[in-house]
């Protein structure tokens, strides 16, 4: 098999009796081997992911309900400071028995299916983690960002901070010659 066989997101549910109503609890953690998220905010390789969930036998498969805890690293969209974003997100997915897979392939695309006793939680966990991440991460709601003129952090600048508007005639417009303008 390929390396996916070793995926830490796969959980073997052989201890769970296949009778509706039976339930087992699981908890484990592992370092991620592929980044999750976007470059602006991502769970980097090596970051520990903790999973805690219960698996319940239902008529058509196994319902998995739990939470994922980890953290993502990124950059504040306003001041560019590094940020560490805590993730604590609940998730719930139904994993169907292969025998209960419907005949309709379109419908099956949306569903998770057990591989024997094994449920692959990767997509469920990735989706839950990404769902919990803000689209525009900021270091704090109070972040004042950067001065658009000098790029310094507003929080570190004096209360009264501004830039004199430089007259373009004295600015860095080398080669600018007033007599060559469109003026007639
Ligand atoms: Zn910030
Ligand atoms: Zn400034």
Number of discrete domains: 1
Q: Low-confidence spans: pLDDT under 50, at least 5 residues? A: 1-5
- String of helices and strands: EEEEEEEHEEH
C-alpha-based Rg, rounded: 27 Å
Distance from N terminus to C terminus (CA atoms, Å) equals 78 Å
β-strand amount: 25-35%
Short description:
8% of the residues lie in helices and 35% in strands. With 184 residues, the protein is mainly β. The protein has one domain.
Walk me through this protein's architecture.
By secondary structure, the protein is mostly beta strands. It has one domain (3-132). 8% of the residues lie in helices and 35% in strands. The protein contains two helices and nine strands, in the order βββββββαββα. Strands 2, 3, 4, 5, 6, 7 and 8 form a seven-stranded mixed beta sheet that branches. A two-stranded antiparallel sheet has the order 1-9. The longest helix is centred in the C-terminal third of the chain and has 11 residues, at 122-132. The protein is elongated, with a radius of gyration of 27 Å. The protein starts with 9 loop residues before the first strand and ends in a 52-residue tail after the last helix. The relative contact order is 0.16. Residues 1-5 have low confidence and may be disordered.
Keywords:
184 residues; two-stranded antiparallel ribbon; 35% strand; seven-stranded mixed sheet; mainly beta; single chain
List the helices and strands and how they pair.
Elements: E1 10-12, E2 23-31, E3 36-38, E4 41-43, E5 48-58, E6 61-75, E7 82-96, H1 105-108, E8 112-113, E9 118-120, H2 122-132
Parallel strand pairs: 7-8
Antiparallel strand pairs: 1-9, 2-5, 3-4, 4-6, 5-6, 6-7
The chain binds zinc ion (2 copies).
């Amino acid at each position: 098999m390929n390396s996916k066989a070793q995926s830490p997101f796969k959980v073997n549910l052989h201890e769970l009796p296949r009778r509706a109503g039976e339930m087992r609890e699981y908890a484990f953690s592992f370092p991620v081997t592929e980044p999750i998220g976007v470059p602006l905010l991502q769970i980097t390789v090596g970051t520990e992911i903790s999973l805690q969930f219960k698996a319940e036998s239902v008529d058509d498969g196994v319902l998995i309900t739990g939470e994922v805890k980890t953290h993502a690293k990124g950059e504040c969209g306003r001041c560019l400071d590094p940020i560490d974003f805590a993730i604590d997100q609940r998730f719930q997915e139904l994993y169907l028995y292969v025998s209960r897979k419907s005949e309709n392939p379109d419908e099956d695309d949306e569903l998770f299916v057990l591989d024997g006793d094994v449920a692959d939680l990767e997509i469920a966990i990735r989706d839950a983690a990404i769902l919990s991440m803000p689209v525009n991460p900021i270091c704090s709601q109070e972040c004042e960002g950067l001065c658009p003129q000098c790029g310094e952090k507003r929080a570190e600048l004096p209360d009264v901070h501004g830039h004199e508007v430089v007259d373009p005639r004295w600015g860095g417009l080398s080669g600018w010659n007033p007599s060559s303008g469109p003026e007639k």
